[in-house]
Amino acid sequence: MIFKRRDPKPTLRAMAEFLWPRGGWTRAFHYVKHRMKRLPDSPERIARGIWAGVFTAFTPFYGLHFLIAALLAKLMKGNVLAALMGTFFGNPLTYVPIGVMALQTGHFVLGSHLPEGDHRSFGGKFADAGGDLWWNLRAMFTNADMDWSGIVVFVQQIFYPYLIGGILPGIFFATLSYYLMVPLLRAYQKRRKGMIKAKFEALKQKTALKADAKRKVD
């Protein structure tokens, strides 16, 4: 197939590079930033796409961030590719602070808190909910009793507070990204147009000199 790797990447290596890309997250960040600048669209549309991507990174819908960001970008008439790139605001280096911020804000807004003495981790509650889904799926075809306790705890203590609490910081950082990117993108596109125009004029002048030299020889 076209673009298919000749040497398939081992699973463990792929997982390792997801957590820490080859060259580090700094290089990955600069690559995404470079790609955003070169998108063939207006600064405002690209920035609206980035807004959608950054905001989506503050939602608890892991695994669906690309889809949600694309839908938001469509609704906002933003650049969809920029939205997909904007979701990289959420990455293994930022998931923890984003999660803590969203959970703390959500419990504050809802007037709730995590039960004292509950030492089950954030990831552990995710695992419990996933385990319940798998168990209940099997229970549909066996005599086992369904158990929704892990999912109930996850929704009450993690998912719902995260969903509510991610709205305000999500809007803040997404809007900050928008107003930072519009002038940067506009300046970059203006400079790039100037460089392309200068190269065209130089090529035009070079062609004219060659034609003039040829006429003199003839």
Automatic annotation (TrEMBL):
Record carries keyword Electron transport: no
InterPro entries, per database record: DUF2062
Keyword Metal-binding attributed: no
Chain ranges of the DUF2062 domain: 27-192
UniProt keyword list: Membrane, Transmembrane, Transmembrane helix
Superkingdom of this protein's organism: Bacteria
Transmembrane segments: 50-73, 80-103, 159-185
Record protein name field: DUF2062 domain-containing protein
Organism listed in the record: Sulfitobacter porphyrae
